[in-house]
Amino acid sequence: MQCSWKAVILLALASIAIQYTAIRTLTSKPFQLCPVPSPQNCGLLGGPGTESPIEGRAGCDDYPYFSFNASRKTHIMVLATTRSGSSFVGQLLNQHADVFYLFEPLYHVQTTLIPRLSHSRNAADRRVMLGASRDLLRSLYGCDLYFLESYIKPAPANHTTDKLFRRGASRALCSQPVCDAFGPTNANVEEGDCVKKCAALNMTLAADACREKRHVAIKVVRVPEIGDLRALVEDPRLNIKVIQLVRDPRGILSSRIETFRDTYRLWRIWRATGRRPYNLDLSQLTVVCEDFLGSVSTGLSHPHWLKGKYMLVRYEDLSRNPLLKTMEIYDFLGLSMDKSVEEWIQTNTRGSTELSAKHKYGTVRDSAANAESWRLKLSYDMVEYTQATCQKVLHQLGYKAVKSAEELKNLSLSLVQDKTFVPFS
Ligand SMILES: *[C@@H]1O[C@H](CO)[C@@H](O)[C@H](O)[C@H]1NC(C)=O
Ligand SMILES: *[C@@H]1O[C@H](CO)[C@@H](O)[C@H](O)[C@H]1NC(C)=O
Ligand SMILES: *[C@@H]1O[C@H](CO)[C@@H](O)[C@H](O)[C@H]1NC(C)=O
Ligand SMILES: *[C@@H]1O[C@H](CO)[C@@H](O)[C@H](O)[C@H]1NC(C)=O
After folding, report:
1. What is the sign of the dihedral through the CA atoms of 336, 339, 342 and 348?
2. pLDDT tens sequence across 147-174
3. Which of 19, 29, 228, 360 has the highest local Cβ count within 10 Å?
């Protein structure tokens, strides 16, 4: 986009809106909820009054994570960035019979608080988003799904909505008792079928289903760095385990160019013409690399607060050896892998193409077979540019730079160095 006066005005308006939101949110209610479990401080963030989140319940005291059994429940977080294979990893957890899975609930926070500036690095903007995100995650790990309602547009009526982002990606939300459409079978329901055939989502039933499951897993692509989660990780009422998923930034870039066609338009122009547009938004690349670098440096430096709670996974390793890597992940989580997980891996990593490209955020298309397909899609000068920009993080994560177009296109030459990232135990 040219930096016209229109853009300047738009930007100014947007920043006013954000500041307004920030001030309102900060003054209406603090971000830190539930320092002591009580119904008062578990209300809806900025919502209409502080109602008890669960009808007929006393409040926080009844939440699973405040109960005696708290330590038994594992609160799993897949920390990733868009187009890094997080849907795939999410599914590896979703398939487990004891796991209640949510696909990127922070989408609703972002669309509500920061509708236009998804790539903004503005500090106020970021603070608002992170504060709200931590609160929401804390509530969701406690199965308080009502908390999410204040971010869903239009606001759910009678605790019912058909607007939950990617509801169909969650097995628990597509099967009984939450959805009756498919009877008592626990078979895997296609995401589209779930959305089409299930009645609007009853959040009360969904929260019940969450409580029934032993563990809660949430996929998060809207938290830039693991350090931003420290307050959550240290919360004694939670038992968080973070799986940080990383991927070669060159692969992420390529995948985003294909997927987010408007946002990455200039990169496509570059690819098509061989010439880099002068107004290319470089931050679309640097942000990924900076966040990885920050996050991974923190994680691998083994700060005490992450002890026993952190595992780094390279998407490429998972792609090469999905079963083995998945077993390692389950091992780290302290869960036993069940048969349905194994079956899902079998079906989804065989490189079958008939299911692919059904959905922009689909898992199959992005699974094992094509972790390195970016090498055939990006031009050499784009790769060279990315390598220069992301040099540090490539090195840190063990991704090799190429020195020529021939090397780039020669797939028998792996660009993924053998590197072991043992979980921090
Ligand atoms: C803990 O959970 C188990 C089942 O998961 C249940 O049988 C037991 O009664 C619970 N204990 C307490 C003290 O809530
Ligand atoms: C919510 O439930 C009440 C009572 O059952 C009903 O009167 C009302 O129409 C419902 N609202 C919507 C939007 O469905
Ligand atoms: C949602 O489920 C709860 C629990 O079964 C039920 O009491 C409530 O009436 C349902 N809500 C709607 C709008 O159907
Ligand atoms: C690709 O790389 C392999 C391994 O280094 C090499 O043996 C082969 O000759 C290369 N192929 C081409 C076409 O350069």
Report:
1. negative
2. 999 999 899 999 999 999 999 899 999 9
3. 228
Of the candidates 227, 222, 240, 220, the residue with the CA atom closest to the CA atom of residue 294: 227
Of residues 12, 23, 26, the one with CA closest to residue 131: 26
**Which amino acid does the sequence have at 393?**
V
In our burial notation (b when 16+ CB lie closer than 10 A, e otherwise), range 17-34 reads ebeebbeebeeebebebb
Ligand nearest to the CA of 70: 1
Best CA proximity match to 380, nearest among 414, 399, 407, 400 = 407
| Global pTM value | 0.80
CB-count burial class (<10 Å; 0-12, 13-18, 19+) for 99: buried
Q: Is 158 in the pocket of ligand 2 (CB under 6 A)?
A: yes
Q: Is 158 in the pocket of ligand 3 (CB under 6 A)?
A: yes
Burial of 379: CB neighbours in 10 Å, binned 0-12, 13-18, 19+: middle
Peptide bond into 236 cis (omega under 30): no
Of all ligands present, the nearest one to the C-alpha of 156 is: 2
